[in-house]
Amino acid sequence: MSPRRSAAEAQATRGRILERAAEIASEEGLDGITIGRLAEEMEMSKSGVHKHFGTKETLQISTLDKAFVDFWHRVVEPALAQPPGLRRLRAVCENSVNYLEEPLLPGGCLMTAALTEYDSRPGRVRDAVAEVWSRWRAQLRAELTAAVASGELPAGFDVDQAQFEIVAAGLALNAAMQLEHDHAAAGRARRAIERALQQR
Fold first, then answer.
1. Helix or strand (DSSP H, E) at 140
2. Per the structure, how many domains does the chain have?
3. Contact, 46 vs 39, CB < 8 A?
4. Among 93, 112, 104, 94, which residue's Cα sits nearest to residue 174?
């Protein structure tokens, strides 16, 4: 076997492990994933899983990173086809609602689950959770700021308040979908976001 093929197969195996880890974590939290459990479910040896991640903490962070990349591909990247300003901002917001309404993972948004699981627990995993949420908020801030700069949102528009309300709408939507299976919540989230953009 060539080194290139061996590396490609190792990467593919790592990807499959992370896919299953993300599914578990979305329903049971990041603490629900362990090297032993994944080895059993993937029909691998513990050492086979261990060589990809080393520690449970690294596995947890890698799982969170994978979920965030998937979120970014579905929510942010498609919106970049729109010019900076209100159209792109609305595309990002609509994609985020769609992502929560029809989640990629069985337990909904893993980033939201990790936020409530780790918000008050110090350590590397909490730092990773804070980092992905910081990147999402920064993207929203950039889109809001661009809409103000283009004149599509008024001068003096409170970017911080709008960012807060958009994030809050997403958190409420995920909770309503997962806890109550309330599909009407998506419409409420869209209206809440639109009201945040209509502030004067």
1. helix 124-149
2. 1
3. yes
4. 112
Tens digit of pLDDT for each residue in 128-164? 999 999 999 999 999 999 999 999 999 999 999 999 9
Contacts of 188 (CB under 8 A, 6+ apart): 172, 173, 176
- Assess if residue 171 is contained within a domain: yes
Burial label for 163, CB within 10 Å (0-12, 13-18, 19+), is buried
Q: What is the CATH number for 63?
A: 1.10.357.10
With contact defined as beta carbons under 8 Å apart, do 30 and 105 qualify? Answer: no
Rounded to two decimals, the pTM is: 0.91
CA 40-46-49 angle, 5° bins: 95
62-76 per-position pLDDT tens digit: 999 999 999 999 999
d(CA 40, CA 73): 30
Would you say residue 92 lies in a domain? yes
Q: Which two tokens stand for residue 34?
A: 């362990």
Find the domain containing 120 and state its range.
56-197
CB 172 within 8 A of CB 189: yes
Binning the chain into helix, strand and coil, the percentages to the nearest 5 are 80, 0, 20
Quote the CA–CA distance of 195 and 110 in Å, as a whole number. Answer: 26
Assigned domain for 3 exists:
no
Domain-located, residue 18: no
